[in-house]
Specification:
The structure holds three protein chains of three kinds. By secondary structure, chain A is of the alpha+beta class. Chain A has three helices and ten strands. Chain A has one domain (10-169): 60s Ribosomal Protein L30, Chain: A (2-Layer Sandwich). In chain A, 21% of the residues lie in helices and 33% in strands. Chain A has a five-stranded mixed β-sheet, with no helix packed on it. The two termini of chain B are 18 Å apart. The longest helix of chain B has 24 residues, at 82-105. Chain B has helices at 2-24, 66-74, 82-105, 122-129, and strands spanning 28-30, 41-50, 54-62, 112-113, 117-118, 132-140, 143-152. In chain B, strands 1, 2, 3, 4, 5, 6 and 7 form a seven-stranded antiparallel β-sheet that branches. By secondary structure, chain C is α/β, with parallel strands linked by helices. Chain C has one domain (3-122): Rossmann fold (3-Layer(aba) Sandwich), CATH 3.40.50. Chain C has a five-stranded parallel β-sheet, sandwiched between helices. In chain C, helix 1 (12-24) crosses helix 5 (111-122) and helix 2 packs parallel to helix 3. The chains are: A alpha+beta, B alpha+beta, C alpha/beta. The B-C interface holds B 18-19, 22-23, 70, 73-75, 80, 83-84, 87-88, 90-91, 94-95, 97-99, 101-103, 107-113, 115 and C 10-14, 16-17, 20, 58, 60, 86-93, 107-110.
């Protein structure tokens, strides 16, 4: 009987306006330096499927053509894309645990954050989830000029957030 | 009076924006234009409060955002029924009022809130309810929210 | 496990929001009752078995405080778990409710806050 070696632990890095879904338990999905962007994590503990999206802007209304080329740029097109990819990998909606990280306010020095992209990203995500019948399980969002890095362990679903020198499980 | 207006307006704007964002997923920011909207009004509602101070909160939505507010609250895609839209407007006014009073009167003050009552226009509401102590205006995703706090002088 | 729930609020939209949140929380709801004020809620409680009641404070006819007083005074309703969902910001009032063994969710709430409070009061592990 052949002995199957587990695959080596591997970090899969998700870039800006990108996403990844994995059903390999040893995989760890990671995205770096979230400011006003969101890191949206989904995990199905039964199917052993995890996914992560690094999304930049709230609404594709401002550039539908760009959204068509890369849906992961916008919350309203990227999040459905992430869910669909997770379903293709075997995840089921009613089992999906959804967590979100990021959405910080920007603005240099004492300057106000005029566009409030981070806040708009979080609001758009929450509206989308509520209208589609999904309750967010946990969030680490907002704050002033916070840079967050987020890790999702596909095997366990553990979400780890590193921000400004602190580290916490979400 | 300008000091009173200022001291009430800041918590009123904060309570209104938080309520619109958390309850109805609508992004609210200080309005670019001054004054109360007079066109394309979706609805006006007011509710009285009684306690250490007496008065009322008036909320007007305009620019076609009331159907979006109600559908967001209910988690629907289409526009809800008119009774649901009126109910949603009243509930948002109720939550804004309940959240602004402790910020103004302190965390231990106990207030009783009245039932939301519709009004035909802003001038009719303000005339019926008495002098406006503070007024704030928010731009809300293509529409607008005007909110006033009426505080009656102590008896 | 099965769960019979009563949602008491004078806003029909708010009742719908709370019921939607309970359903999306994965709770095994078997019966969902609604009431627009405390008096209607008491009538429902006398006619039906209820495990959990979500109760607003400011309501016409009979408010949430009066309803809670009556529920707590009735031994037959001792098994009803009460959660107040209200705009109430007065610490005086909230402490008085907590002293009666009532949990509290502040409006405006997020669905996650309602879910977390309900799971906690029911002693259900957060899967």
């Amino acid at each position: 009987m052949p002995i199957t070696q587990p695959p080596p632990a591997a970090d899969k890095v998700i870039g800006i306006a990108d996403m990844a879904v994995s059903d390999t338990s040893a995989d760890r999905l990671v995205t770096y330096a979230l400011g006003s962007c969101l890191g949206v994590c989904v995990h199905d503990p039964v199917a052993g499927v995890g996914g992560m999206l690094h999304v930049m802007l709230p609404s594709s209304d401002i550039d539908p053509q760009k959204a068509q080329r890369n849906p992961c740029m916008f919350v309203d097109t990227g999040v459905p894309e992430l869910f669909r990819a997770a379903y293709r990998a075997g995840a089921q909606k009613e089992r999906l645990v959804v967590k979100v990280v990021g959405g910080a306010a920007s603005g240099e020095g004492d300057q106000p954050d005029n566009f409030q992209v981070g806040k708009r990203n979080v609001l758009t995500l929450k509206k989308l989830l509520w209208k589609n019948g999904v309750i967010l399980r946990a969030e680490d969002v907002g704050g002033q000029r916070v840079s967050r890095t987020v890790f999702l362990q596909v095997g366990t679903g553990e979400v780890l957030v590193k921000a400004n020198g602190r580290e916490a499980t979400l | 009076m300008p000091d009173l207006m200022e001291s009430l307006a800041t918590p009123l704007a904060a309570a209104a924006a938080e309520t619109l964002e958390q309850l109805a997923y609508l992004f609210a920011e200080p309005a670019a234009a001054d004054g109360v909207a007079t066109e394309d009004v979706d609805g006006i509602v007011a509710l009285a409060f009684h306690g250490p101070a007496h008065g009322a909160l008036i909320l007007q939505l305009s620019g076609g955002i009331l159907p979006a507010l109600a559908s967001n609250m209910l988690g629907l895609d289409g526009a809800p029924s008119l009774p649901d839209q009126r109910d949603a407007l009243g509930e948002v006014a109720n939550v804004i009022c309940g959240n602004v009073l402790p910020r103004i009167a302190g965390a231990t003050a106990v207030f009783a809130l009245g039932v939301p009552t519709p009004y035909p226009s802003w001038p009719v509401a303000t005339e019926a309810l008495g002098g406006v102590a503070a007024e704030v205006h928010l731009d809300v995703e293509g529409g607008r929210a005007d909110i006033a706090l009426v505080v009656h002088p102590a008896a | 496990m099965s769960l019979k729930v009563l949602v008491v609020d004078d806003s029909a939209v708010m009742r719908s929001m709370l019921i939607r949140t309970l359903r999306l929380s994965g709770l095994p709801l078997t019966n969902v009752y609604q009431a627009g004020n405390g008096a209607e809620a008491l009538a429902t409680l006398s006619a039906h078995e209820v495990d959990l009641a979500l109760v607003d404070i400011n309501m016409p006819i009979m408010n949430g405080e009066q309803l809670i007083e009556q529920v707590r005074a009735n031994p037959r309703l001792a098994g009803v778990t009460l959660v107040v969902v209200s705009t109430e910001g007065s610490e005086t009032r909230i402490e008085a409710l907590r002293a009666r063994g009532v949990s509290f969710v502040h409006k405006p709430f997020t669905p996650e806050q309602v879910r977390a409070t309900v799971l906690k009061v029911l002693g259900v592990a957060d899967a």
